[in-house]
Amino acid sequence: MYARSSSDIAWQPVRCNARQNFVCKKAEGSCQPGWVAHQNRCYQFNTRYLLSWQQSMQFCRGQGARMVESYGNTATNFLKSYADELRSAGVGTYWIGATDNNTNTYKWSIGAAIKYQHWVHNPPTNTLNRQDCVYVSTNDRNGLWRPTPNCGTKRAFICTIGFNRPVKTITTPRPTLKCDARWTLNSGNCYQFNDARRNWDSARQSCKNQGGDLATINTNRLHSFVINRIRTQEYWIGLNDKARNRKFIWAATGLQTRFRKWCPREPNERGGQENCIEYKNRCWNDQGCSTGRKFVCQKPPKSIPLGPPITTTPMPFSLHCGVGWEEDPSSKYCYQFRDDQMSWNDARLACKRMGGDLASIHDRETQVYINTRSATMNSVALWLGGTDRSKEGGWTWSDRTPFNYVNWAPRQPDDARHNEDCMGYYVQRGHTWNDFPCNYRNGFICKKY
C-alpha cells in the first residue's frame, strides 16, 4: 500500500514489487543501530578495536559521544549486567572515562568531578608524575574501578551519547593481523614450525595446547610457503585417513581434501599402517602415525588495531545474542555481516568460534532481510551455509536445518569445472544463489539463535 503525494492523501493498493519512495518511522527516545539504550542514554560497546585510553576518548568524541561515566548505582549496575556478554566475546577489561590527568584528582573525561565512588581501593592511587587512567575488569562481579598509569594499554571501551543525538561517522584504526612470537603469518593464519620430534597425535596435541591444530595445506601458496621453510625435511601436517582408509581429511576441520601434493606413487599405505601424512622431499607421503617427526601448527591470528584510519560504522550489540550480532526484528535469529575475505571453510570456522554458523535461509522474509542488510557491504560475494560436498547435487545447510527454500540464480547451481560445492551470492547481482569453489575468498554471513 502507498499514499499519493497530494492534498487528499489516500492509500492505494499496488503490487509489492512496485518501486516507490518510502517513509521510515523510528521510536522517540531510541538509539542508533549498534547502540544499547538505558534510561535516557545510549551505550556503544567497542570490542573489535582495542585502543589506548586517549584513543578511546578520541574515538568516542569523534562520534559526538563521550567515554562512559557512572554517576550512581543505576549506571554501574547496567554496565555490570553486561560483564558476562563481554567476557564471552573475549573482553577481559575495558576503559571508562575517568583519569587524573597527571594530578591528584580524578575527573571524568568531560572535566566533571567524580562524586560517586566505586574504586577497588578508596582512596584511589595516584602515580607520581604520570597520568592514571581507569578501567574495569569483566571478571570482577562488582565492576570496581581500577586506576593504572599504563594508559597506553590497548583495551575495549564503551562510549555513551544522549537519546536522539546524531551519531557521526567516525574514523577507526584498520585492524591488522599479528601472530605470537615464533609464529609466522601467511594467507590469513599463523604457522609454527616445531623441531621437536613427536608422533602424530602428540604433535597435534601440542598444537591444540597453543590454540591451534596441525596445519591445513589446501592452496599452492601455502604449499610453497611450507616447502620453502622445511626444504626436504620431514614434518607432520593435519592430513590423515585414521577414521576411514583412503578418505583423507584435515584434522582441524574434519573436511576431505581436494588439494593434493602427493609424492610419486603415494599414498601407498605400506604395511597397512600409514594413516598420517607428512611432508617428505617437498611433497606428501603417508607414514605410520607413531613415527617421530617435526610438525607444522596452524592457528588464527590476532586482530590488532594498527595502521591508517578508515571510515567505519558502530559495532552492533544485541541484547539477545551479544557483542557483534544484530537481530533480525522479524525472527528469533541474529546475524553478523562480515567483509573479511575467507574460504568457505575458514568462514564457517569463524562463525562457529562466535557461537553461530554460516547463514541458512528458509523463507522469503529472511532472504529480503539479508538482501537489504548486505546491499551496502564492500564484498563482491558473500558465503552462505549451503554445500553439496557430501553428495553432488544434494544441497544441505551447514547448521543441519532443513533445506526447504531455494533462491538459485538462473542456470545455477552448475558445478562449473566440477569443483563448485559451496554456496554464496553476488551482492550486486540480484542476491540469488550461486555455487562457488569452496577455496574462493568471499565475505560471509553468520547466523546465531
Automatic annotation (TrEMBL):
Domain C-type lectin, residue spans: 38-160, 186-298, 330-447
UniProt entry keywords in alphabetical sequence: Disulfide bond, Receptor
Matches recorded under Pfam families: Lectin_C
Gene3D superfamilies: Mannose-Binding Protein A, subunit A
Highest taxon of source: Eukaryota
Signal sequence bounds: none
UniProt cross-references to SMART domains, sorted A to Z: CLECT
Protein's name in the database: Mannose receptor, C type
Provenance organism: Mytilus galloprovincialis
